[in-house]
Amino acid sequence: MREKTGRRSFLKNLGIGGITATVAPTELLKKKNTGVAADPKDVFNSDIQPARAFNGVYKGQYLNRVAFPVGGIGAGMYCLEGTGAISHLSVHHKPDVFNEPGAFAAIHVKGVQYGSKILEGPVPDWKKFGRPDAANGAAGTIYGLPRFSSAEFQTRFPFAIINLADKDIPLKVTVKGWSPFIPGDADNSSLPCGALEYSFANNTSKPIDAIFSFNSKNFMQKGDQKGAIKKIDNGFVLSCDGTKDRPDWLGDFAVSTDQPGTIVDHCWFRGGWFDPLTITWETIRNGNTKSVDPVDEGAPGASVYVPFTVAPGGKKTIRLMTAWYVPISEVRIGEGPTDADLANDQCFTSDTLGDDVNTTKEYVGGKYKAWYCKRFKDIYDVSGYFSNNYNDLLKRSTLFSDAFYASTLPPEVIEAVAANLAIIKSPTVLRQYDGRLWSWEGCGDGWGCCHGSCTHVWNYAQAIPHLFPSLERTLRHTEFCESQNGEGHQTFRASMPIRPVKHDFYAAADGQLGGIMKVHREWRISGDNKWLEKIYPLVKTSMDYSIHTWDPRHKGLIEEPHHNTYDIEFWGPDALCTSFYLGTLTAITKMGEFLKQDVTLYKELYAKGKAFMETQLFNGEYFFQKIETTGLNAPSPAEQAKKSYGGSYSKEAVDLLEKEGPKYQYGSGCLSDGVLGAWIASMCYLGDPLDVAKTTSHLVAVHKYNLKDNLSEHANPQRPSYAFGDEGGLLLCSWPKGGRLSLPFVYSDEVWTGIEYQVASHLMLMGKVKEGLDIVRTCRKRYDGKVRNPFNEYECGHWYARALSSYGLLQGLTGVQYDAVDKVLYIDSKIGDFTSFISTEKGFGTVTLAGNKSSVKVYSGTIEISKTVMGGPKA
User: Looking at the DSSP assignment, which residues form a beta bridge with residue 290?
Assistant: First the structure.
């Protein structure tokens, strides 16, 4: 260990040192500071400070955009806003970002003037004009109903906690929204359900009589389709029939309480204009209840009523359980497959990876069907399971939250990691009938954005591999089976339903190479040697295809035109993809040696490539690209462009090509992703494939040149909404030594949070903790709730997958990695003593380093450790 005493004092200056793993989340919040270092000389000190406490409470203007996803992995969701409102309801297997369903809880306190209010805080100002229909009065919303005058929101993922207050209501009101999230238990974490717990504390000297209600329009009814509101114990089911033309509209949404004797109104007043909600509110305001049986059709909404009394000093909690069941979707992505595709697919025609994987034949002609439809037969089955197992699911989800927030890491890091776990619960992620993951890159307002578990985007995501390793392995299965043909060409966008695909576009060099490194990661996390034996032949085919395609002259370089995450092709050797190549050659070598395979070629290529990159692609400060268009197997850039997203070259583009070379390169630029492959190698238990000093130098240059605390004078003609004006951010690229092309690679002037976090994590791995925290703070300041939702970091769509790179910050600071193959716990702390969360294939808990001693506290399952190594895995 290095300089532990000094770094321990740094943590104490932050106000987070000395917190033990047994501290409860609420107490931990009280002890943590605002993210401001007390000592200006402290390595954690920064000019980038928040106006609200990182990992703290959202209130006032910081509540404007808060919306916290509640739902299961690949099952759909709704959001609990910072005020307590329900929005973003997306349960039809696609996002519906502006869907405010007209569902609300309310309280009536008897004998109190103005004692009837909905259980929400003030409506954010932006909704008064920012909604598409605001100028027409925002008809149908509940904005005009009386509500609490103040709200405060905080999260302890997967829990969202809202405190409501109002001078008219003599009760302390807390709302807790959550859905099951249990690392290692993918199925219970994928349930189509969520809960809202409403707690009422009486701090007065007299008993208080009140009526709680939950009220909802039948938001499941679509268009002119027949809807109904059905019975369920202590609640109601909002329902819609599908038709031959729109079978995907078939679905149910259940709402029920844990209170025996709940009174249910299955049919609001039927009338025109605003009659249903008007009569419903009058019932609430007057302190009445209604018991109305279901009707055949035409019920506009439903309510549940729970009368209760709270004694002086007492507390009453009412659980509201929600569940949904939508058996059919309209999601089908990808053409084919043709007979040739089927014949050439290695897994479709065999059981290479076993029966649990080779299940695609039944989906070839259909559409996406959610995993939960295989486990549950209908809405009553889902709702019953959630109700019957509620206490256990709550207990186990709380164990995860307690373990995660027992951390002593800087609060901005904890906030960044936890906030982006919301992506896993968002419509970005789907889980098909056989249990396999399939994901968008992000979400448009009403449809998924950029399909197919895109390999070069999901490369960055580090949370699912550790939290739900079995689900992550299903992504590898798809990549190396249905998405890879017999020659080793891998499509970087998988079809949905998952099935063999047409191989009529470039493979993505970073995506395909990253997948091989991730196979090594999944093997080390799972400890499953038999799985490695099964998948290795497919991995080798992919590796050999990559060599033949991008390094045909065996130089150890990726130099032929290669598609990448910027949706274009780089020409000639560049540091980004060559760092991938070196990490991948390291991975295939390690796996091959374990399986006693001949890896001589891979070793030779690695040695050549490393020497070239460190001498020919390094300018003494950072790595760059050497643009080449001659001496390659590829046709001219103009001809090549016809196949790419860039399209054919115009006359003026050809003129520019002759002068500067092909469009969309970075050349002498300082690329934030310039050593991305080395970071992914470190995330994948491979160590750094490059000289550490040069890697560090590059990352320091990225921090120096690309991190801006104010973008007012930065010109971005591309997609500016990610960061612009007086906001700060990490630019994708800069040209501090000159040489910027007229048309550098697309997106080069943008800011992406997924890249900000990977650079920050990599800086931390190299011991540059202050620089890494600078970037994290800059990013999270943009997502503080005022303008952007803290739980929806977007890039090309909402809840963008790349931001799951934030989970790598844990490893960046602590160096904690658990190798289940050798039962080794690696620790390489950059901050001295710490307590941090750890999740493995079979259990989760915390790792604590104190002085020269380490310990593991297991909260759930088991973590078998044979030895602890101070330092990380080596390349």
Answer: none
Cα Rg, the chain, nearest whole Å? 28
Note the pLDDT of residue 337. 66
- Extract the runs of DSSP E, i.e. beta strands, from 768-814: none
List pLDDT tens digits, range 272-296.
999 999 999 999 999 999 999 999 8
Amino acid 728 reads G
Q: For residue 271, which phi and psi values (nearest 5 degrees)? A: -175, 180
**Closest alpha carbon to 165 in 181, 180, 147, 183:** 147
The Cα-based distances of 743 to 71, 428, 667, 747 in angstroms read: 43, 31, 11, 11
CA distance 411 to 389: 33
Determine the average pLDDT of the residues in 369-386. 97
Tokens describing residue 210: 């009140």
Mean per-residue pLDDT for 77-104?
97
- End-to-end Cα, the chain, rounded Å: 20
Q: d(Cα 789, Cα 120) in Å, to the nearest integer?
A: 18
Tally of CA atoms within 13 A in the half-sphere of 810 that contains its CB = 28
Alpha helices in 742-805 (DSSP H): 753-765, 769-782
* Distance of alpha carbon 664 from the chain centroid: 29
Q: H/E element holding 3?
A: none
Per the CB < 8 A criterion, the answer to whether 768 and 44 are in contact is no
User: Which of the residue ranges 122-136, 311-325, 397-411, 575-589 would you say has the lowest mean pLDDT?
Assistant: 122-136
Q: Are strands 150-156 and 116-118 parallel, antiparallel or unpaired?
A: unpaired
DSSP 360-418: GGGGTTS---BTHHHH-SSHHHHHHHHHHTHHHHHHHHHHHHHHHTT--S-HHHHHHHH
- The CA-based diameter of the chain, rounded to the nearest angstrom, is 88
How far apart are alpha carbons 259 and 464 in whole angstroms? 36
Q: Say how far apart CA 870 and CA 816 lie, in whole Å.
A: 9
Q: Taking phi first (over 0 means left), then psi (-120 to 50 degrees means alpha), and beta for anything else, what does residue 53 get? A: beta
The structure's pTM equals 0.92
Give the tens place of pLDDT for each residue, 485-530. Answer: 999 999 999 999 999 988 989 999 999 999 999 999 999 999 999 9
Calpha distance 729→710 (Å, rounded): 8
Residue 449, beta-bridge partner list: 442
Main-chain phi, psi angles of 69, to 5 degrees: -65, 135
Under 8 Å between Cβ of 406 and 28: yes
Per the CB < 8 A criterion, the answer to whether 490 and 512 are in contact is yes
